[in-house]
């Protein structure tokens, strides 16, 4: 069974993480599928918006660490790298529904979404420094712009988890929704986007993102430093401790 599931509904491509036994940790095959579904949806005129979600108790716990360490050459063809730049280049809007853990990429990908909804169980974390790494997905630029430098420093340098109310206060989340209504609410918003005039919708979205080239440059810098950090002694020690748990 695929760990990434896809369904199209009234102009919305719904993509879901489906690896509950690993708390929806993303391995390289999942990154490949995510990118393929997004690229195919971009090329399909019948698809006008995307929605992404996990299960009711978990969005994603981040990277599958063991799989990632076996494939740590972060060149342009690395599945995780391709996914990150695919997010940046999306022309069609992206909606996220977040329940439970949203760790690492589970939080940074939200910075590329247009609308984000969460329930009260959502828990966010950016534990990159905790693992002797640096942020990815342009988070070192996008997060300070969204929440201010001091709060971004708290979230990125301490790497502590924060709850749904905090995420809403920080404007990372548009609204909090009851757990049993979350997916329906997010899908309704995605369908409303899909019903809008598509060219005007996409043009407006692009106008709201005039700093895309800055983000792209920052992502390249992050990946370069990420690769260096990944090979460092302190990262090896942190990952060994993590995997031994």
From TrEMBL:
Q: Where along the sequence do coiled-coil regions lie? A: none
One Pfam family, please name it: ECH_1
Q: Which Gene3D superfamilies match?
A: 2-enoyl-CoA Hydratase, Chain A, domain 1
Q: Which UniProt keywords apply?
A: Isomerase, Lyase, Peroxisome
Question: Primary place of residence?
Answer: other
Q: Which domain of life is it from?
A: Bacteria
Query: What is the E.C. number?
Result: 4.2.1.17
Provide a Gene Ontology MF annotation, just one: enoyl-CoA hydratase activity
Cellular compartment(s):
Peroxisome
**Entry keyword Lyase:** yes
The UniProt record lists the keyword Thylakoid: no
Q: What class of enzyme is it?
A: lyase
Protein name per the record: Enoyl-CoA hydratase
Organism, per UniProt? Answer: Shewanella salipaludis
